[in-house]
TrEMBL record:
Superkingdom as given in the UniProt entry: Bacteria
Keyword Transmembrane: yes
Ranges that cross the membrane: 42-61
Biased composition annotated in UniProt, kind: Basic and acidic residues: 1-14, 93-106
Protein name, entry field: DUF881 domain-containing protein
Keywords annotated in UniProt: Membrane, Transmembrane, Transmembrane helix
PANTHER family: UPF0749 PROTEIN RV1825, UPF0749 PROTEIN YLXX
Region annotated Disordered, chain positions: 1-23, 93-119
């Protein structure tokens, strides 16, 4: 029999059978398509957007949890707090408008030097009130704290002071001591000092400001009045059309700072 007549599946002597590609199963083809991963630019952008969205949701959830303290408040308390925030916003808007008007006057005044002098005098008066070097009077409240059990601590009086400042108090006097920017309270109940000067109950705060803002700020839920009453102290707030704050501080000369105009 000739070579041409041999069966095709039989190798001729000296010849090697050609390699046949191995057939892959379905699972192997799936694995080969997924690994190693091929990340496109579009997939990276989508992943980044999903991360930013998740971060925003987490921040929103945390912000909502921080406001949980107000969820248990009564409706009238929430309305009062909202009104107080609106009043503070309005005060800031009024201050901005006043400064804008001053700038306009300086720009349009025919005698800018005289206008600047007037504004300088007015600013000096305002700074004198803040520094406690000049007396002041105006509408406000008188806050009287009686402490028969010597339970009122220095930090409670400081909280009352800070709450009044936040509500727009412009001048404050405590038991004959003028309150300034660096005023502090120290000591224990019954032996409290303000700026290293001893004071005793009743503690009387004479405050100049808008009474309709000052009194509600003291009576917010969990605020100054409720905290003091828990210590068996009695608190009385009286509004007045004219409060006089005449306790003065001596003008202090700085040891090192000098005006940059010199």
């Amino acid at each position: 029999m000739s070579n041409e007549e041999l069966p095709r599946d039989q190798e001729r002597p000296g010849e090697q059978q050609a390699d046949v590609p191995e057939q892959l199963t379905g699972r192997q083809r799936l694995i080969a398509g997924l690994w190693p991963p091929r990340v496109t630019r579009a997939q990276l952008i989508v992943a980044l957007l999903l991360f930013v969205l998740g971060l925003g949701l987490a921040i929103q959830v945390r912000s909502n949890s921080d406001n949980s303290a107000l969820r248990g408040a009564r409706q009238e308390d929430l309305v009062r707090i909202l009104d107080e925030l609106d009043d503070r916003t309005q005060r800031l808007e009024d201050e901005k408008q006043r400064l804008d008007d001053q700038r306009t006057e300086l720009e349009n005044s025919s005698d800018q030097a005289e206008e600047a002098r007037k504004q300088t005098v007015e600013k000096e008066r305002q700074l004198g009130i803040l520094a406690g070097t000049v007396a002041a009077h105006g509408p406000g409240i008188t806050l009287t704290i009686n402490d028969p059990g010597d339970a009122v601590q220095a930090d409670m009086l400081l909280d009352a002071l800070q709450e009044l400042r936040a509500a727009g108090a412009e001048a404050i006097e405590v038991n004959g001591v003028r309150v300034v920017a660096n005023t502090y309270f120290s000591g224990d109940g019954g032996a409290i000092k303000v700026d290293d000067r001893s004071i005793s109950a009743p503690y009387v705060f004479k405050v100049i400001g808008k009474p309709q803002d000052l009194e509600p700020a003291l009576n917010i839920p969990g605020g100054v009045v409720q905290t003091l009453e828990k210590e068996q102290a009695t608190v009385h707030v009286a509004q007045a059309d004219d409060i006089v704050v005449d306790a003065l501080r001596p003008a202090e000369q700085p040891d090192y700072a000098r005006s940059s105009s010199q």
